[in-house]
Each structure stands twice: as structure tokens, then as C-alpha cells.
Design goal:
The chain is α/β, with parallel strands linked by helices. It has one domain (about 50-180). It contains two helices and ten strands. The protein has helices spanning about 15-35, 60-75; strands at about 50-55, 75-80, 80-85, 90, 110, 120, 125-130, 150-155, 165-170, 175-180. Strands 1, 2, 3, 5, 6, 8 and 10 form a seven-stranded parallel sheet that branches. It is globular, with a radius of gyration of 22 Å. The model is unreliable at about 15-50 (pLDDT under 50).
Length: about 180
């Protein structure tokens, strides 16, 4: 006997791939925010808020290098996908104690859009990216706290022959985070 009742219509379901992408993107953003703001303190504490600067490639070594270094000096350099031409070492600042007894200066963060998506093509001498604390580990006194260098590729194939260079030079700091970096 056939039933005259209609089966209930199912509500449209979201695409699982889209949901995974959005959830993963939110989780990735939360991870970046957490890594960047890992030293966050309550609003009542003395803190210095970091500027976040979104940078797109200019395809000019002087402009790309200057734009990225200026952003690092004031906080976070968030790099768009693309190829950035770098002609001198980018220095990622490390949190250091304030000499005036005020809040510590914030560490810088160099964050790309993913290895292979954000590429730093280096043509200078020395390291492409450097980050060192001001107080060496093993000594008394506060250490520099945690620069963040994440989600990018450093390409040194444009360095001239006979030039000694390295892709990444870091040290003398606690809580350094280097993640998702291809050299």
C-alpha cells in the first residue's frame, strides 16, 4: 500500500569542503592572532598596541624592503601572496625591557600568506631575515621575548656568486616562533 504522505524535505546542507575551508581559515587566523598576541595582558596593564600593516608586492627591491622594514619597526608586517624583492636584511625586532621602567617594547612579526604563496627573493648580503634579542641567553636580566616569523618562503637564488649569505639568522631570545618558513 502506497502512502500519500510526503516525506519531509531536507534543509539544504552547507558544502563540507567550504565549511572546512572556512573553519580552517578561522582556526588559522586564530592561531596567527594567538601567536602574534601571545603576550597579551589585561587592558588595565601597561601595554603598547602593535600596528598591523598589510603589504602587497611592489616588484621593486627598494620599495618592498623599505615597506616591510617600516612595518616591522612599528609592529606586524602581514604580507600578501606574491613575490617581494628584498635587497638588504630585514630585521625583526625583539621585545626588550624598557630602559625607562615602562612597558616592554613589542616584538615584531613577519607573517606571510603561506610558504610558496609569499616569497621573499633576496639579493643582498648577509641573512635575508634576522632577529636577535638584546640580552644573550644565559645572562641575568630579562630576555627578549618572541619575534614571530611565519608562513613564507625565503629565496636566495638571486644572490651573486661568491657572496656568503643565509636565509634566516635568529637567536638570543625567548619564545621565538618560526613556523611555516621554507628556505
Amino acid at each position: 500500500m502506497a502512502s500519500s504522505e510526503k516525506s519531509p524535505e531536507l534543509a539544504p546542507q552547507p558544502n563540507p569542503a567550504r565549511r572546512a575551508l572556512l573553519t580552517g581559515g578561522a582556526a588559522g587566523l586564530a592561531a596567527v592572532a594567538g601567536a602574534t598576541l601571545a603576550g597579551a595582558q589585561p587592558a588595565s596593564a601597561q601595554t603598547q598596541i602593535q600596528d598591523v600593516t598589510w603589504i602587497t608586492p611592489a616588484a621593486n627591491a627598494v620599495t618592498d624592503t623599505t615597506n616591510i622594514q617600516n612595518a616591522l619597526n612599528s609592529g606586524v608586517a602581514l604580507l600578501a601572496p606574491g613575490t617581494f624583492l628584498i635587497n638588504q636584511t630585514l630585521t625583526v625586532p625583539v621585545q626588550s625591557p624598557s630602559l625607562s621602567g615602562g612597558p616592554p617594547l613589542p616584538s615584531g612579526s613577519l607573517i606571510g600568506s603561506g610558504p610558496g604563496a609569499t616569497i621573499l627573493v633576496f639579493s643582498g648580503t648577509g641573512p635575508a631575515v634576522s632577529s636577535h634579542g638584546s640580552v644573550p641567553l644565559g645572562t641575568t636580566g630579562p630576555q627578549g621575548n618572541g619575534a614571530r616569523i611565519m608562513n613564507l618562503t625565503i629565496d636566495g637564488s638571486n644572490v651573486g656568486s661568491g657572496v656568503v649569505t643565509s636565509g634566516l639568522d635568529v637567536g638570543d631570545q625567548a619564545d621565538l616562533l618560526v613556523w611555516g618558513v621554507t628556505i
